[in-house]
Amino acid sequence: MAKERLDKALASVGCGSRKEVGFIIKSGRVCVNGQTVKDPSFRVTPSEDKLTLDSKDLRWRIGRYYMLNKPPDLVSACVDNLHETVLSVFPQSQRRGLFPVGRLDKNTEGLLIITDDGGFCHALMSPRRHVSKVYEALVEGKLDLNAPEKFKKGLVLADSTVCLPAELVILGEENGLTRIKVTLHEGKHHQVKRMVAAVGGHVEYLKRISVGSLKLDETLKIGEYRELTDDEVNMLKNEAKANDTKKK
Ligand code: URA
Asked: pTM for this structure?
């Protein structure tokens, strides 16, 4: 693999803009193979040299993959004129190139995957791949008695949107609200809220608890994130591939 400038290499793994990483390098926070390097133009071979920033290993692989326990006040976007985005949980120096995999509504909590890998994002969101997403909700109002069957058949919403068959499980009552679990195999706009409305309820609280086989890490407090393990990333990639209706 060809050598490249240290500042360019650091920027490409999301440590900041070229200008930002220039400052970081000059301040002595970066080591190459154990030696502090303060020259941004120092040349490195990404596949061979071991780089650290503040003593933490930097990965050379293209993809960075995180799970965030999304708080209810952040929008699922990279930039927004009015509200803080989900990227605000990351240090400024790591935000470059990252984006959320799909969207959760601003007031929805729970599992949101954040990556810089466009192919991975596409595989998880593609309607062709039907990667399931599971939500828990608290619902006001009386749900139709046959709501689970209606979900199973595939609901047609008030605006004629046709939904794929989904699962609705009634988990119980909580302070006058009904706790439900919904499994979707697609991702239409406000889909859980609209499907619940179609069977007589109103979603008061919504949290995503899994995407495919990836479950929200219960140890993450609201607003915390962690890197996905290689096994978790591979599991999701394999699931998306296995579900691909075009390849069947
Ligand atoms: N369905 C919704 O209604 N909102 C979300 O944020 C996700 C799924």
From this structure: 0.78
Query: Reduced to 3 states, what is the DSSP secondary structure of residue 9?
Result: helix
105 flagged as catalytic: yes
CA distance 105 to 165: 22
Q: How far is CA 176 from the centre of its chain?
A: 32
- Please identify, by atom number, the ligand 1 atom nearest to the C-alpha of residue 194: 3
Q: Which of 128, 78, 80, 120 is nearest to 100 (CA)?
A: 78
> At 88, is the secondary structure helix, strand, or coil?
helix
Is 151:195 a contact under the CB 8 Å cutoff? yes
Pocket test of ligand 1: the residue of 138, 192, 204 to mutate, having most ligand atoms within 8 Å of its CB, is 192
Q: Among residues 80, 105, 217, 244, which one is catalytic?
A: 105
Per residue in 141-186, pLDDT (tens digit) is 999 999 999 999 999 998 999 999 999 999 999 999 999 999 999 9
Q: How far is the CA of 227 from the centre of ligand 1 (A)?
A: 23
User: Is the separation of the CB atoms in 14 and 83 below 8 Å?
Assistant: no
Domains of the chain: 4-58 (3.10.290.10), 65-127+214-246 (3.30.70.580), 133-211 (3.30.70.1560)
